[in-house]
Amino acid sequence: MRKIKLLAIVLTLVMAIGLVTGCAGNKEGADKDGKAAANYPEKPVNMIIAFTAGGSSDVQARIMQKYWNKYVPEQPWVFVYKSGAGGSIGFSEIAKSKPDGYTIGGVNVPHINLQPLGQGAQFGVDQFDYIAQVVNDPQVIVVKKGSQFKSVQEVIDYAKANPDKLKMGIVGTFTGHHLTLLDLQDKTGIKVAQVVYKGAADQNAALLGGELDVMIGNYNDVMRSLDQMTILGIATEEKYEALPDVPTLKELGVDVVSDIRRGFVAPKGIPEESLTFLRDTFEKICNDPDYIKDMEKAGQPHDYMSGADFEKFVMEENERAKELLTKYDLLKK
Fold first, then answer.
1. What are the tens digits of pLDDT across the range 203-256?
2. CA 52, CA 33: separation in Å to the nearest integer?
3. Under a CB-based contact definition with an 8 Å cutoff, are residues 82 and 93 in contact?
4. How many other CB atoms are found less than 10 A from the CB of residue 118?
5. What's the CA gap between 314 and 130, in Å, rounded?
6. How far apart are CA 175 and CA 117, in angstroms?
7. What is the enclosing helix (H) or strand (E) of 178?
């Protein structure tokens, strides 16, 4: 009996020691994980830009970089430009990058919806972790100053009288610009000569160089060149505060409303603590009064949306994009 009692005591002591050791191990692991989360990022973060340097996506990211350096001074961004195919090349690069938190990038909506649906692009909206939306950029119809066209109606009248002669520029196919052009043609019955560019900087240079008659652009891209360009109409639901004298297309009897949302994502599956850090930091940046002033000064239509809300918006936009592409018989079979 005494031997049985002694054995029971020994077993109890062994279990107690194991329990204490286990708790110590868990604490050590927790401390290690906490330290890892606290130290992120431990090296520079690659920022992939899917359009040419100098375009609106690049300009916005450069403003954000300034405030990233304010809140995360230890680790800078390294800009990597992967332009072409209306952003598809860069978006694919983000999606296939290692999901370690050290590659993030800018994306445009509806581009990331349209390109997989219409082109079979090598990425899908479910291949990203969403950090934040930062911009809602309305689209505008623009001519070079001194153009023969003084109004949207004059553009429409000319295009109707001269089918496929009006040279109209857009950035990429299966982009917000492309869908706006298709919608414009559908609503007015015009046919134009579509001219496609890799990025906004190239498109702007083409308009100013006389290669184009008209272009569909983003407000931000045009805002920086208003001394050389004239905005004939804007594709917003209501009068745009920053352009009070510019009529909306709806006011002009053309029921076209279109904008391009810009945001930031990471490859799907980055560490949860890294995603939380990125989301929190981007929120701080977007609420910084000086950042907002810099955005306004650059003509960037500041519109913050949290990562979770941005993801929800993109998924809803995906359904709308399917309907649009089906209507134009552009949905990839």
1. 999 999 999 999 999 898 888 799 999 999 999 999 999 899 999 999 999 999
2. 39
3. yes
4. 20
5. 10
6. 11
7. helix 176-188
- Name the amino acid, one letter, at 153: Q
Tokens of 36: 């890892």
Q: What angle do CA 307, 313, 317 make, to 5 degrees?
A: 145
Q: Which residues pair with 130 in a beta bridge?
A: 265
Cα–Cα dist 119/188, whole Å: 26
Closest-CA residue to 148 (of 216, 213, 232): 213
CA contacts within 13 A on the Cβ side of 299: 17
Contact by Cβ (8 Å): 314, 115: no
Q: Which of 118, 206, 111 is nearest to 168 (CA)?
A: 206
Beta strands 302-306 and 128-144, pairing class: antiparallel
Tens digits of residue pLDDT in 122-178:
999 999 999 999 999 999 999 999 999 999 999 999 999 999 999 999 998 888 899
Question: For the whole model, what pTM was predicted?
Answer: 0.75
